[in-house]
Amino acid sequence: KNIPSKLKKGANAVIRKDLTTFEFQDESKTVKKVVFAVTIFNKDKQHYGELQLWYDKFRTISDLEGTIYDADGEEIRDLEKSDTDDYSAISNYSLYDDARVRTAELYYDKFPYTIEYIYELRYDNFLSWPAWYSRSSTDPVAYSGFEVITPVDYELRYWNNFNSSKPEITIDGIYKIHSWESRNLFKLPSEA
Fold this sequence. Notes:
Layout: H1 5-8, E1 13-26, E2 29-40, E3 50-55, E4 59-69, E5 75-78, E6 84-88, E7 100-105, E8 113-124, E9 141-151, E10 168-172, E11 175-185
Parallel strand pairs: 1-9
Antiparallel strand pairs: 1-2, 2-8, 3-7, 4-5, 4-8, 6-7, 9-11, 10-11
């Protein structure tokens, strides 16, 4: 009910919140936290209920939560073990590779409904930092954000393309926070 009508116009789903927080603890340890919530208006967009998280000896899943809400925002149920699966990310012929994938699936049969996933990945010996895009599909987005948290004395290098917004930089005690965000991005045509 609290989605702006301009975002709902012609939409099969609206991304309510897509927030990634990337915390640099030191040269060998980083943490990525994601909150992703989407309201689904019909079965054409039920794929948003599927989540895949890859992990290995350098990347671990330290938290995975999911919740389904009805049209009034009332909680229907939480993610349960039976909604998840865990298997090798490599073919069965590889006996020495430890790459794995954990999947989660949340669906509801009464539209509209909202799915929220919250998860945390911990990295050891992280080589590349995540990129951020204000949207990952043509669906409308109410809020999309990216935060990078570093020690206050760490100089973060980043690149923005020609039409990207610059980050807001704040200091919180011993941490420096670079924040990018976008709000109320309308549905794009399919050719976009």
